[in-house]
Design brief:
Layout (H helix, E strand, L loop, with lengths): L2 H10 L11 H5 L7 H12 L7 H8 L17 H12 L7 H12 L1 H11 L3 H7 L19 E3 L6 E5 L3 H6 L1 H13 L2 E5 L8 H5 L3 H15 L6 E4 L2 H15 L6 E3 H8 L11 E4 L3 H6 L4 H9 L3 E3 L13 H4 L1 H17 L4 E4 L2 H8 L7 E3 H9 L4
Parallel strand pairs: 2-3, 2-4, 4-5, 6-7, 6-8, 8-9
Antiparallel strand pairs: 1-3
Helix pairs in contact: 3-5, 6-7, 10-20, 12-13, 14-16
């Protein structure tokens, strides 16, 4: 977002307060500067020279989860997330609190394979130590290998179509089994699968920390790779990645990944539900924020679950789990408060499992929901297909 557009968006806010109803951070700290209206007012004052960058200002602007819930409830239609991104870009040099997270996130996106190896080497001593000391909100359990390290094509005898997979960092390095599940389901339903070489991070973590130029470079590379492919769809198991490819890239580089879509939107049309035998009878579905608010997909994952014969129990799908990418690292108290509220509903639910569509939500919810499994929608689909494969 350029400076002119940024000021235009800031000036559109009429201070109506509609954003208060859906803001997760305002629910944790009911002060004016912990909601979109207050944050926009602060950024306007900063742009007008009425206030100067300060630790307190940085804390308010960087405490937004960027869930996107407020944007859909904004009467004048302020693009609040993009304003927040630009505000963080302006403040990053004065934001010392997140300087180490910024450094390591940038290093990860530049050297993901090396970073994975270093984390793997330290997972039994350094990472648990950092968790005990309160520097990490969780200790990641790293797999022995990543999902891919080069280009892969998985062919099928009677090809129904061709699909590319945007792996994303979380699936490639933390949950390769989810990527394998997606490949298995696509293969079973007749789709040739491509994992192209050269894919990089979607850039969302960098934008969260104000590193706009670095995120733009990653976006240009991904768009160039995936838009050249002759495929029916570009699927991702992470709504934040899909939102970046489809919604955010056009705003920062002028073009998105044209065929990017979430798996629920794809499989609700591509599956033969009569073949499915669900592994869990009664489930609760947790809405990832970027799937619900960013991509506008609320019915599709539920149609997939009920289509396979699952009994879908009611739950409060408006609660943010508090993960929000690097937010759980830099705003641990708010993140934990959001998690406890969200998880309490699921712990008490008379369900066999909690299903969601986001690796980050799985990480977060699994910290508190221990009386039932927390699984990805693709795991449900793969197990539902197993009796027939």
């Amino acid at each position: 977002m350029d400076s002119t557009k940024y000021l235009q968006e800031l000036s559109k806010c009429v201070k109506c307060g509609s954003c208060k109803a859906t803001c997760p951070t305002y629910g944790e700290d009911s002060t004016e500067t912990m909601v979109a209206r207050g944050r926009l007012a602060l950024l306007w004052a900063l742009s007008a020279g009425r206030i100067q960058p300060s630790p307190a200002l940085n804390e308010r602007i960087f405490s937004c989860t960027l869930c996107g819930a407020c944007t859909g409830h904004c009467p004048p239609g302020v693009d609040i997330k993009e304003v927040m991104y630009h505000g963080r870009h302006l403040l990053k040099k004065t934001d010392r609190k997140r300087r180490h997270v910024r450094f390591f996130t940038h290093f990860w996106t530049r050297q993901p394979k090396l970073s994975f190896r270093l984390l793997h080497m330290s997972q039994h001593f350094l990472l648990p130590y950092l968790h005990r000391k309160g520097f990490l909100p969780f200790t990641p359990e790293l797999p022995e290998r990543q999902l891919k390290d080069s280009s892969h094509v998985f062919t099928v005898p009677k090809k129904k179509g061709r699909v590319a997979v945007f792996t994303g960092c979380a699936v490639n390095f933390l949950y390769p089994s989810l990527g394998e599940s997606l490949i298995n389901v696509l293969h079973n339903t007749g789709y040739e699968v491509i994992l192209p070489a050269g894919e990089v991070c979607c850039g969302a973590p960098l934008r969260t920390l104000g590193l706009e130029e670095q995120a733009r470079g990653l976006a240009e590379k991904n768009a160039s790779i995936f838009n050249k492919l002759n495929v029916d769809a570009v699927l991702s198991l992470c709504p934040s990645c899909t939102q970046s490819l489809k919604i955010d890239y056009p705003k920062i580089i002028g073009q998105g990944v044209e065929k990017a879509m979430d798996i629920s939107a794809f499989f609700v049309e591509a599956l033969d539900f009569a073949r499915l035998d669900p592994p869990y009878t009664r489930v609760v579905y947790h809405d990832p924020c970027h799937l619900k608010y960013g991509l506008g997909l609320l019915k599709e994952p539920r149609k997939v679950l009920t289509g396979m014969g699952t009994d879908l129990l009611p739950a409060d799908g408006d609660r943010c789990c508090g993960f929000a990418g690097v937010f759980c690292l830099t705003n641990r108290e708010i993140s934990q408060g959001l998690l406890l509220k969200c998880a309490s509903d699921y712990v008490a639910a008379d369900a066999d499992a909690i299903v969601t569509s986001c690796p980050g939500c799985i990480i977060q919810l699994s910290k508190e929901v221990r009386n039932k499994p927390v699984v990805h929608l693709i795991e449900m689909l793969e197990e539902a297909l197993l009796p027939h494969t």
